[in-house]
TrEMBL record:
It is an enzyme of class 2 (transferase). It holds the Pfam family GGDEF. PROSITE patterns: GGDEF (PS50887). It comes from Rhizobium herbae. This is diguanylate cyclase. Its EC number is 2.7.7.65. It comes from the Bacteria. It catalyses: 2 GTP = 3',3'-c-di-GMP + 2 diphosphate. SMART domains: GGDEF (SM00267).
Length: 361
């Protein structure tokens, strides 16, 4: 997938166009259908970030069938192929469950047949006490053979059930991988906008705040300039350095998500206004301590900073109001080149103009 910086940065428009042109030219040369998910797959292949994916795409050759392209997209859990992956998982699950049902039915039938044979043998012993030794020997031989066959079938059934358990485990793994693809940012491994929207909505129960919490909308200052000056790869490297910093900066039950190219959202639970502001200031200091080494410049590095707008659940009427207040606080702290952390207040709300447009949500 084309990097977010290339989607929404003015300075990167030319580079974005060049990358898209290269992808389009490659797809046209190979006769690949111009589906959005195919663009995602070929961008990932041409980026070289996943050598295994690149090798699989290279092995497609000219004029590959779409089903083979989709197999690769599903295999590497690309987000554009998630609907196809869902259908594959559904089909595999139905097939596996049907097979289990058939095996169980067959096993029940075998067990019932063996039980019937055993009952017949017991009845013969009980009702015909004068049966000859040769007759008894013949019945015992048939019973011995039946027991041996039953044991073989039971062993085979146990093997098949173990294989089924493994298949179901694989399906569960695929479902989990697909879930992560749909709710995780590919670059940082943090939650994405989809997961953030769900978590934000959960802050309010029946229209009222479920508990004291704070939403901090954060913009990483300098990240876009870093991308435009040194390329998307350096910006991606910086993001991967920031991700663990953000994870370590919040409590276990708090939440952090990447919701834009250089924008993140934090949810702090059980905090006061002062607590939330102090946490945001601490995160800002941690970001400023991160050193980003520039390509071919071993002794040269760049630093970043952040601006944050904070809104508190007790004074917001709902999730939409909460995010609007955080946006206004973030906008206010960045006006005129200012940087830092600002908590929403009535004064900030009263200064909001009609020309203000949301840049986060």
């Amino acid at each position: 997938m084309v990097d977010d910086f290339q989607h929404d940065g003015h300075g990167h428009a030319a580079q974005n166009a060049a990358i898209l042109l290269r992808v389009a030219q490659t797809m046209a040369k190979l006769g690949v259908a111009a589906f959005p998910r195919n663009y995602e797959l070929f961008y990932e292949a041409l980026s070289g970030r996943n050598p295994a994916l690149t090798r699989d795409v290279a092995a497609l050759g000219s004029y590959p069938v779409q089903s083979r392209i989709e197999e690769i997209g599903v295999k590497f859990h690309l987000s554009g192929f998630a609907p196809i992956a869902t259908d594959v998982i559904r089909t595999e699950a139905a097939r596996t469950i049907s097979a289990v049902n058939q095996r169980l039915n067959n096993n029940i039938a075998r067990t019932e047949g063996f039980a019937a044979l055993l009952r017949q043998f017991i009845a013969r012993l009980e009702t015909d006490p004068v049966a000859g030794m040769s007759d008894f020997s013949a019945d015992a031989g048939r019973m011995r053979d039946a027991v041996a066959a039953f044991e073989r079938e039971e062993r085979a059934f146990a093997v098949s059930m173990n294989e089924t358990v493994a298949e179901l485990g694989g399906i569960a793994s695929d479902i989990e991988a697909m879930r992560k693809t749909s709710t995780r940012d590919a670059t940082t491994g943090l939650a994405n906008r989809v997961a953030f929207s769900a978590r934000l909505a959960a802050l309010y129960d029946d229209g009222s705040a479920a508990g004291p919490a704070a939403l901090a909308l954060v913009k990483v200052e300098g990240l876009r300039d870093l991308c435009e000056s040194h390329g998307a790869a350096i910006a991606e490297k910086a993001l991967k350095k920031l991700a663990p910093v953000f994870r370590k900066s919040v409590k276990k039950n708090d939440f952090v998500a990447r919701i834009g190219a250089d924008e993140f959202a934090f949810i702090f639970h059980d905090v006061s206004t002062d607590n939330a502001e102090a946490i945001a200031q601490r995160i800002r200091a941690c970001v400023e301590a991160v050193q980003i080494t520039l390509p071919n410049r071993t002794f040269t590095s760049k630093t970043l900073s952040l601006s944050a707008g904070i809104a508190m659940t007790p004074i917001a009427s709902g999730s939409a109001d909460l995010i609007t207040q955080a946006e206004l606080a973030l906008h206010a702290v960045r006006v005129g080149g200012n940087r830092g952390v600002l908590v929403f207040s009535a004064a900030i709300g009263s200064r909001a103009t009609k020309t203000y447009t949301r840049h986060v949500a």
